[in-house]
Amino acid sequence: MAIEVKIPPMGESINSGVLAKWYVKDGDVVKKDQPLFELETDKITSEGTAESAGKISLKVEAGAEVKIGQVVASIDATASSAAAPATPAAAPVESAKPAAPAKALAADTQSPAVRRLATETGIDPAAVTGSGKAGRVTKGDMIAATEAKPAEAARAVPAAAPAAAPAAAAKPSGERQTRRKMSPLRQKIAQRLVAAQHEAAMLTTFNEVDMSGVMALRAKYQDDFVKKNGVKLGFMSFFVKAVVHALREVPAINAQIDGDTLVENNYYDIGVAVSTDKGLMVPIVKNCDSLNMADVEKQIALAATKARDGKITLADLEGGVFTITNGGTFGSLLSTPIINPPQSAILGMHSINERPIAVNGQVVIRPMMYIALSYDHRVVDGKQAVTFLVKVKQAIEDPARLVLGL
Amino acid sequence: MDSYDLIIIGAGPGGYVCAFRAAQLGLKVALIDKRATLGGTCLNVGCIPSKALLHSSEHFAFAKGHASAHGIKLGSIELDLATFLKRKDEVVAKNVGGLALLAKARKVAVLTGTATFTSANTLEVKGEKETTTVTAKNIVIATGSAPVELPFMKFDGTTIVSSDHAIAFSTVPKKLVVVGGGAIGLELGSVWSRLGSEVTIVEFLPKIAAAYDDDIVRNFTRLLTKQGLKIETGAKVTGFAKGVLTAERDGQKLEFPADKVLVAVGRRPYTDNLGLEKAGVQLDEKKRVKVDAHLKTTAPGIWAIGDVVAGPMLAHKAEEDGAAVAEWIAGKAGHINWDLVPAIVYTEPEVASVGLGEDAAKAANRAVNIGKFNFAANGRAIAADTTDGYVKIIADAKTDKILGAQILGHNAGELISEVVTHMEYGGSAEDLGRTIHAHPTMSEAVKEAGLAVSKSAIHAL
């Protein structure tokens, strides 16, 4: 009996994607739940697995645009039940395979020069249109791909800049540009960033935060915290809690426009921007109002790992009401973040620098951070935005306010 | 009247491959040839017997000229021409016998006789004893080619001969003049030269092996001359009388005394007495059967392949035509890449080419990079005393895609095929250079030439 392998539903807004890689070869015998392919969609990269064991026959090539529900392969279940028990010799072959399935497939369908160029330029031959026999990518195709697309440097998200630098240094001299096709994720990021700027009446308000209070708390309790929870106490959990606190005070920020309706959210799912090599992702930490600091830290760490490993699922990315992004990780002093529609505001954290400030008529040196709140003026009034940011500032400067709900 | 899915006229490499492939695909097939043996010109009087003669004569030349340098002392070395020719006949018999077995096993009906169209789907086959009529949904014309005759010196089979005769001289001619410096003339000229004839090649064009690059031909000509062949280019043959072939060059008269004259000026498509007009099959201006890109003639259900249609007159090209037509008739996706037909002159050293030559690339103003590697720097070639010649790879200057290759050297015909394979897959010179070649082999020179395209050959400066 042949079982159809379909592109699984990914969530409401996703209709299609690119079948980026096959982990199996045509005719392979697959096991139930074995990963079969990597699917790149606008939002996430995910894996499709085998619903049943059997001999697979592939119906689309890697790199093909696929629709949700499209049949991309079929599994002949009779083949495995007949073959697997009858031929024990097949088993070791099969078990030997998972070692490097995708790489092995790529290597023996690409010419050595193509493999060299893929390594040197970072261009994935799977994303290049092949002019060779049966659509194979030739060296000429790779050279054309290198020249056809703007350089890595043109990436939209500043977070990626430090990662791009070593890659640029490794590039062979001579070529003044490297061009490559944008991944669907990268294209979507670009589209959404531009759309956000077009659609929202976006502006940014700034403040600065004296971090000495939080730093002192961290210094004092870090060891105990790690001992108890197994994660480090970072700045992010303070900001997440401060944001929840401020959202409660200024509910207008926790609202969004849906057509001609204003939707006020009564929950506190906060997105935390994570930079990955595939682009910026914003996993959501759900119900932050009911989490303690350790839970927040754990969830952020988990989400960041999943995002960086490409294991993140759509459920991890959907439904946030507010986003925090930390440009300070890369040393940004001050920036204006772009809101993540349909959310109405985003908080930008920045680097902590010691600066002289006046406290009670005295000039003192304090670890200071600029914070920025970009907001959609259609939803949020200036007063609300400024109040919100001040609430965040106060909660960070004096974390006792979080406990007291002030 | 016997009826078939497919009838093929002509059992040469094009015809029999077509028949075998079609039979594999389940068609009911008949294969007609006027010869009693399968294999056509190629196996009976062409490629195969000439190779047998070339190999035997190479051994003879080695024994006479080179064995002592290898420390091999031989007694008196004599030619036993009868055995020499008998071996060639055995080689032919083995080949055509093999084909007969295959045809039988594949249930291909073999009809011996001359076929003539009586309509678009019926043929009259005139055998030695009886004449039969057969019909088929599809008919493939694979009648091949015949040597071109010069009108002023027609073949007589004894003095003025074609290649058909020159593979079977009963004595070694003292003076052999070969008219035509193409593959056939050079190969058979080499055979008889090695056996003791004074051989003169008379070529009308400014160079022999005219399809190859100038540099290759220059070196090739020098090597052949060193072996004792006289090569006269730019000479127009005017006639033959009283044992002397006359020619003209730049208004000057040339005279070449000859016991025998081999006329090897080319081959013409063979469509004599086929009754094509009854079938509605048209010829083009060069009297080749007119076909479209799928080798269909102007008559529905009639196809034509091999030497009888436009394109290089080469057995391997005909074979691909035949296989593709069989697949198309059976409703499959046949494939031929007519841009990648290798061509070989089987002299010693051999000359082989595929794709675009350096000269053609430059004439077309195409930006190319050239990589060359001399066999003189190849360890195996030095060990085998086959250091003459070199490999040349022509690659696109921008994409590095291999556009062509020309090889002058021992076994060049074997060496060229890996370049063809790389080209079939759109390979670059770098790909060639990054593919492992066993050491020590002459094929390493091909890899090195690939590297030389980007000036990175290891064993050359």
Strand tally of chain A is 19
Please provide the count of β strands of chain B.
22
Overall average residue pLDDT of chain A? 80
Please, how many helices of chain B? 14
Assembly context of the chains: heterodimer
User: Structural class of chain A, please?
Assistant: alpha+beta
Q: Proportion of β residues of chain B?
A: 15-25%
| Distance linking N and C termini of chain A | 65 Å
What average pLDDT do the residues of chain B reach?
97
Number of domains of chain B: 3
| Main interface: chain pair and counts | A-B, 15 and 14 residues
Uncertain segments of chain A: 80-107, 151-172
Mind telling me the CATH class of the largest domain in chain B? Answer: Alpha Beta
Fraction in helix of chain A: 25-40%
**How can the largest sheet of chain A be summarized?**
7 strands, mixed
> So what's the overall shape of chain B?
globular
Gyration radius of chain B (Cα, Å) is 23 Å
Offer a concise description of the structure.
The complex is a heterodimer of chains A (406) and B (461). Chain A has 406 residues and is α+β, with helices and mostly antiparallel strands.
Topology (elements, then pairings):
The complex is a heterodimer of chains A (406) and B (461).
Chain A: E1 2-6, E2 16-22, E3 29-30, E4 35-41, E5 45-49, E6 54-58, E7 64-67, E8 71-76, H1 77-86, H2 90-96, H3 101-109, H4 112-121, H5 139-148, H6 161-170, H7 184-199, E9 202-210, H8 212-229, H9 235-249, E10 255-258, E11 261-264, E12 270-272, E13 274-276, E14 279-281, E15 284-285, H10 293-308, H11 314-317, E16 322-326, E17 345-349, E18 352-359, E19 362-376, H12 382-397, H13 400-404
Parallel strand pairs in A: 12-16, 16-17
Antiparallel strand pairs in A: 1-8, 2-4, 2-7, 3-6, 4-5, 6-8, 9-19, 10-11, 12-15, 13-14, 17-19, 18-19
Helix pairs in contact in A: 4-5, 9-10, 9-12
Chain B: E1 2-9, H1 13-24, E2 29-33, H2 40-45, H3 47-65, H4 81-105, E3 109-112, E4 114-117, E5 122-126, E6 131-141, E7 145-147, E8 160-161, H5 163-166, E9 175-179, H6 183-194, E10 198-202, H7 214-226, E11 230-232, E12 236-241, E13 244-249, E14 252-257, E15 260-263, E16 267-269, H8 276-279, E17 302-304, H9 315-329, E18 343-345, E19 350-355, H10 358-363, E20 368-374, H11 379-384, E21 390-396, E22 402-409, H12 412-424, H13 429-433, H14 444-452
Parallel strand pairs in B: 1-2, 1-6, 2-3, 6-17, 8-15, 9-10, 9-15, 10-11
Antiparallel strand pairs in B: 4-5, 5-6, 7-16, 12-13, 13-14, 18-19, 19-22, 20-21, 21-22
Helix pairs in contact in B: 1-9, 3-4, 3-6
